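Please go through this protein, sequence plus structure tokens, and consider how the sequence yields the tokens. Keep your notes short.
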Amino acid sequence: MHILVLPNAFKGALSAVQTARTLQRALARKHTVRAFPLSDGGDGFMDFFAALDPQAKKITVRAKNAFLKTKQTSFLLLHDGETAVVETARICGLGSAKKEELDPMGASSYGVGQVILKAVQAGAKTIYVGLGGVACNDGGAGMAAACGARLLDKDGHEIALGAEPLLHLKRVDLSAVKTRFKSVRLFAVADVTNPLLGPKSSAKVFGPQKGASAAQVKRLDRAMACWAKAVQAASGRDIAHTPSTAAAGAIAAGLYGCLGAKLILGADFLFQKAHLEKQFDWADLILTTEGKLDRQTFYGKAPLAVLKLAKKHHKPVLFICGQLEENALRRQPFAPAQIAVLTDFAPDSATCMRHTARFLRLACKNI
């Protein structure tokens, strides 16, 4: 059997590259396998580009993480020397954060701005910013501040970093940003289609996974409303209702509103970039993965692109996930018919997280 393996990362356990390698080895004993690690803008975004451009250089830098601690991180400079790839999950990622560290009201995207500036200093004229898997929900305000934006309260004083201080935001000054990025093209590669505000806002849908309580979700929504109002006054861009502005703790909103980035949906963009659709005719079975199959999967994540193309080409799909939210499958036209849940093979979820590769191999034994 010909099996096309298109895995997304198991956040906090296995990268998409590691997952692809594990599945290829496990399945190749009985089947012909082609494996291509995926990213929708979140975890694995740099790995995806590195696979497409083996001559790309990984540039190591230091920048602040979501909790404003300076850490080592990196970005990718493609072989043309003028195109950079920045992955927000590597800078202020949720997967590397400890539960006791989570601080949804104080966490910041400042480090993302630091890395973007370092990419510009390295000669980048075009920058793809992969969005997803972050521990902050500040609307990209910290990122914008690092890039030169001035965020001011009613007295004209600069506010502190984090989401909470945005409740006191009255004005945004983008003059330095416009000068600094005048000749730079930015693309915000989003992993979801949700807008910043509304019933499926960044705070309501993604705030709880960053540690936000019900009360904090409401405060985050109010903070994002203040941010949206000030950014629209400064740039004329509506970050409140534009699709995908909720991506990566709404860093997408800051990139779009303050830096003039073009918003693109990561899964569709990366599938086209790697010409993956042509592989579907070859395959007898499509296999895709994600750490948790839930409602967020159907908001534009990479596995959704796989499911759509499989349906288009009339190919069966096996979806392997770490955890399953069964309610998420109701009334979903692209819900997979065959699902393997790794926690069914493990004694508990903690063991499953620690030994994901082992349980992936177990799941493959029946294929």
